[in-house]
Design goal:
By secondary structure, the protein is α/β, with parallel strands linked by helices. The protein is 53% helix and 16% strand. A hairpin with a 4-residue loop joins strand 13 and strand 14. The longest helix is centred in the last third of the chain and has 41 residues. Helix 12 packs across helix 38, helix 13 runs parallel beside helix 30 and helix 32 runs antiparallel to helix 33. The strands form five sheets. It has an eight-stranded mixed beta sheet with strand order 11-28-27-26-12-23-25-24, sandwiched between helices. It is built from 38 helices and 28 strands. The N and C termini lie close together (9 Å). Among the domains are: 121 residues, no CATH class; 222 residues, Calcium-transporting ATPase, transmembrane domain (Up-down Bundle), CATH 1.20.1110; 161 residues, Calcium-transporting ATPase, cytoplasmic domain N (3-Layer(aba) Sandwich), CATH 3.40.1110. It is elongated, with a radius of gyration of 36 Å.
């Protein structure tokens, strides 16, 4: 099903298999630069090398856009030309009529040519990305990396035209930052956001309808249609712009800095964005690494790489090369976005920006997801509604002609019904509901970057969590203590207290500008749980270094006989061999704890042999007394278990992704509330499976261990292929690809990386994951509210079409004009339907379902169609009854149509109130719309503008009677004959939609199809 593009460079005297295999692809592209032979059998030649191939691939989506827009313009031009012919041409002389006879078709053709030319220029002017050198920096010695960067870097100052261009660029940058330029910049951004919102299926239909109304002489009607379309685009565009600007402010507050070395002794602090490959930087405890860099000098450096690799324990760094090692084992490298937890180092910058490992993680999923959920369902409803409205317009035209109306009047009436019956408020319903939910969530600390994300939240049935930093604290805690006899206890158990106290004595502290503090995260974890030790007086301390493998302290214990004591805490492989009379199970206990993914340290002591504390600390370890083992791990957050419980109660399956050992992952999963029988699968096991096996394995496994960044992406895609709607929550650069690929990506601003935030659809600004449950609730409520509002819009318009057809049968022409139908839509769609969209449903059954399960597409399926049918019949019945009462009582035809107008609006408002009887906002908008209608009808000048006439008490009484009778229409569905009639009407509407889809390919005749 895929179209394959094959690209190759065929050498002049190279292997013939390459030249023979090139045409095997659907499209063969041969590179014909100076190093290659010309391959005449290829479909395309690229003399510019890979840059030309990049431009060719860039042109494919541009060609699709041009083809799609050209088809729309061609259909609109043909329809408008046919309309002009039907209405008898345009007024004016023979020359003017000849010039304007085919004006719509000519204008559409010119528009298509202009669109194609614009896209072609954009593709031609696009700049291919710069070639990237893929250098294995981790396999090089420090001097080799320096020499390679020195050869490829140029530090020359620009001169001549280059200097002038650089100064102009800097001047323009300063100008755009001035307050005077801010309004213009905001206006451009807002215009771009509005333009993107106008890329909607209804836009060309409404635009064509507006032009048709103008051609028929109803300029005001055309302006009303355009106004409704623009209000939707402006509302959605401004919401998108506000969210993006808020996210930009968050990113600006977290702009990282770096200490760049000018000389060996002098450093300057600069923005990380100013670093270039070849710069030398200094790193210290607490620093965020600003770029990918090769280590030059290391002094006890440990780095938290959980944001990149998912490993929860710090990684000890060294200078020695690590050829062939994966990212998580490249100990001679530091990576952008990771954090230094101990030690210091000097490093050489090798990659910046999107060329870093974090940048490549984001690029794994640089894709635009197709429309889904509410948006896709509304597009489908639009496609089904349009044939019905167009058929209604055609019926009005045909019936008018049969009743003897002039051609121009009959065509005008049909176009009026077709244009006015288009549900132009349909896109606005979803936009308003999404904006209201986004505002409510923003007050709870959830930034919604794209409002359409909220509807996907309502369908989410699976949430994938990155463990480290999301479900856990990303902070080491002391979780187990093993005594000398091998008993493993909790840290607060009585036998464990003495071991913890001794371990705390070997936690050296250093002087800083903020007072004394420990230099290592492990020491901080020990001191957090250690009991007070006022009797200990330290005489000397030795900080931990990776090359040494332990930390030590010399001091005196007030409870002892006054002799000095050496206390050691360090790696078991370093400390245990130096112990005398070591218990036989000590090494086995250490291996058991380490096998569970815990960081294990051994604690030992011995009396000092002399009085010089420095000599005792510098001496080799020997003759120690083994005291016990301590084990540390990243522990769950206090709120995580409650969050997962609430998600399960809401019918959502949580899945934990972690880079930890499977046993560690299982232990943490049990702490978080996963059942004992929960399956654990590793990332490597998933990679070895086929797609179907991968999806099947994830059905029974809720924990994925030893998972790499690209494997997280595979997990999300496998769950989606299994039919699940997936949300992905994470805070690290290694989560960015999975966040981007998920149906809903959730980033965490408080402790997350820029890559995760930029890839996310929702950003949690407070770091409290419990608001995710609130966001899911808002998404589910959104579906129900949108369904109710859509039934009001489409059902009301269907009733208007039905009344127009019946009215034409009775009177020979449509009773309501375009202006009156647009007034109906304004009074019933613009305010009451919008109020319904932003308020929750009153239906208890709906609320109960939303609390226990995701809202599937069926919410906008058969139940919605039944609601549309019921509302359409009710609206039509109210209008027909009011119209007949007007015709049967003394008065003019205008009085009858005015009563019909009031009957249509009243019937729709009554249905709106019945569905939201407890909402003050709906009551206010409904009563306000009724008051506006009454004022318009009773005000003579305004009433005449809308084709109405003031009504007397008898007429208003008849309207009230019609509305009351229409309220009984839903009860008619209980009658079998009425149900059969409803079903027949529904089948007719479906047949019309199927016929429209079958005739769609005929519209492509002579028009280039979009590339599949």
């Amino acid at each position: 099903g895929h179209i394959v593009v094959s690209v190759a460079r065929v050498a002049e005297h190279g292997d013939a298999d390459v030249a023979d295999g090139l045409p095997a692809g659907d499209v063969a592209v041969a590179l014909t630069d100076s190093r290659a032979a010309i391959t005449w059998g290829a479909d395309a030649l690229a003399p510019g090398g890979l840059g030309d191939v990049w431009r060719l691939l860039t042109a494919i989506p541009a060609a699709r856009r041009v083809g799609r827009r050209s088809q729309i313009l061609a259909r609109a031009g043909a329809a408008l030309s046919g309309l002009m012919v039907a209405r008898g041409g345009t007024p004016g002389g023979r020359l003017w009529r000849r010039l304007t006879r085919h004006a719509p078709v000519n204008i559409a053709a010119a528009g298509a040519l202009l669109t194609g030319w614009t896209e072609a220029v954009r593709v031609a002017r696009a700049t291919p990305p710069e070639p990237r050198l893929h250098v294995p920096w981790h396999a090089l010695e420090p001097h080799q990396a320096r020499d390679l960067l020195r050869d490829t870097r140029t530090d020359e100052e620009p001169g001549g035209l280059a200097l002038l261009a650089e100064r102009s660029r800097q001047r323009a940058a300063r100008l755009t930052r001035t307050p005077a330029a801010a309004p213009a910049r905001w206006t451009r951004q807002a215009a771009g956001a509005v333009r993107r919102e106008l890329d909607d299926p209804l836009t060309p239909v409404l635009a064509t309808g507006a032009v048709a109304s103008a051609l028929l002489g109803s300029l005001v009607d055309a302006l009303l249609v355009v106004g409704a379309m623009d209000i939707n685009a402006v509302a959605g565009g401004l919401q998108r712009l506000r969210a993006e600007r808020a996210l930009a402010r968050l990113a600006a507050r977290q702009q990282p800095t770096a200490r760049r070395q000018v000389t060996r002794e002098h450093t300057v602090t600069v923005d990380a964005a100013q670093l270039r490959p070849g710069d030398r930087i200094s790193l210290g405890s607490g620093d965020v690494v600003p770029a990918d860099a090769r280590l030059l000098e290391v002094d006890g450096l440990e780095v938290d790489e959980s944001a990149l690799t998912g490993e929860s324990l710090p990684v000890t760094k060294a200078q020695d090369p690590t050829p062939g090692a994966p990212v998580s084992r490249r100990t001679c490298m530091v990576f952008e976005g990771t954090t230094v937890v101990a030690g210091r180092a000097d490093a050489l910058v090798v990659d910046t920006g999107d060329r870093t490992e974090a940048g490549r993680a984001v690029a794994l999923a640089a894709r635009t997801p197709p429309p889904a959920g509410v948006q896709a369902r509304l597009q489908e409803l639009t496609r089904k509604a349009l044939p019905v409205t167009l058929t209604g317009g055609a019926l009005v035209t045909g019936l008018s002609l049969l009743r003897g109306s002039p051609v121009r009047r009959a065509v005008s009436g049909g176009v009026a019904v077709a244009v006015a019956a288009v549900p132009e408020g349909l896109p606005l319903v979803a936009t308003v509901a999404q904006m209201a939910a986004a505002r409510r969530l923003s007050r709870r600390g959830v930034l919604v970057r794209t409002p359409r994300t909220l509807e996907a939240l309502g369908r989410v049935d699976t949430v994938c969590f990155d463990k480290t930093g999301t479900l856990t604290e990303n902070r080491l805690r002391l979780v187990r203590v093993a005594t000398a006899d091998g008993t493993v206890l909790a840290p607060d158990a009585e036998p464990a207290v003495s071991v913890v106290r001794l371990a705390a004595r070997a936690c050296p502290q250093e002087e800083t500008g903020e007072g004394r503090r420990v230099a290592h995260a492990t020491d901080e974890a020990v001191l957090d749980v250690a009991p007070p030790d006022d009797t200990w007086t330290a005489d000397g301390e030795l900080a931990f270094e990776a090359s040494r493998g332990y930390a030590a302290a010399v001091g005196r214990d007030g409870d002892a006989d006054g002799g000095a004591l050496l206390v050691v805490k360090g790696a078991p492989e370093t400390v245990l061999p130096a112990c005398r009379d070591l218990p036989g199970d000590a090494t086995g206990t250490a291996h058991t704890l380490a096998g569970q993914g815990l960081r294990v340290l051994a604690v030992a002591r011995r009396p000092c042999r002399g009085t010089d504390a420095g000599a005792e600390l510098d001496a080799d370890l020997a003759d120690l007394e083994f005291v016990g083992l301590i084990a540390l791990a990243d522990v769950p957050r206090d709120t995580s278990q409650k969050l997962l419980t609430e998600l399960r109660r809401a019918g959502i399956l949580p899945v934990m992704l972690t880079g930890d050992h499977p046993e560690t992952a299982r232990a943490i999963a049990l702490q978080l509330g996963w059942p004992e029988e929960t399956g654990v699968v590793t990332g490597d096991e998933l990679v070895d499976m086929s797609r179907s096996d991968r999806a099947r394995a994830l059905r029974g496994a809720a924990v994925v261990a030893r998972v790499a960044p690209e494997q997280k992406l595979h997990v999300v895609e496998a769950l989606q292929q299994a039919g699940r709607v997936v949300a992905m929550a994470g805070d690290g650069a290694n989560d960015a690809a999975a966040i981007r690929a998920a149906d809903v990506g959730v980033g965490i601003e408080a402790r997350g990386s820029a890559a995760a935030r930029n890839a996310a659809d929702l950003v949690l600004t407070t770091g409290d994951l419990s608001v995710l449950v609130d966001a899911v609730g808002e998404g589910r409520a959104l579906w129900r509210s949108v369904a109710d509002a859509v039934s009001i819009l489409i059902g009301g318009n269907a009733g208007e079409v039905g009344f127009s057809v019946l009215g034409t049968l009775l009177a020979g022409s449509s009773p309501l004009s375009t202006r009156q139908l647009l007034l109906v839509n304004l009074l019933t769609d613009m305010f009451p339907a919008m109020a319904v969209a932003v308020t929750p449903s009153d239906d208890p059954a709906t609320a109960a379902h939303a609390a226990t399960g995701p809202m599937g597409l069926d919410v906008l399926g058969a139940p919605l169609l039944r609601s549309i049918r019921r509302r359409g019949v009710t609206t039509c019945l109210g209008a027909v009854t009011a119209y007949l009462i007007g015709r049967l009582t003394p008065g003019t035809e205008r009085r009858s149509t005015t009563m019909a107008l009031c009957g249509v609006v009243g019937a729709q408002l009554e249905q709106t109130l019945s569905g939201r009887r407890h909402s003050p906002l709906v009551w206010a908008t409904a009563l306000g719309s009724a008051a506006v209608l009454a004022a318009l009808v009773q005000t003579p000048g305004v009433s005449h503008f809308f084709g109405c006439t003031p009504l007397g008490p008898v007429a208003w009484l008849g309207i009230a009677l019609a509305i009351t009778l229409s309220a009984l229409a839903p009860r008619l569905e209980r009658m079998e004959r009425v149900r059969h009639l409803y079903d027949a009407a529904t089948r007719l509407a479906e047949h019309l939609g199927d016929a429209a889809r079958r005739t769609r390919p005929l519209l492509h005749s002579g028009i280039a199809r979009p590339v599949a």
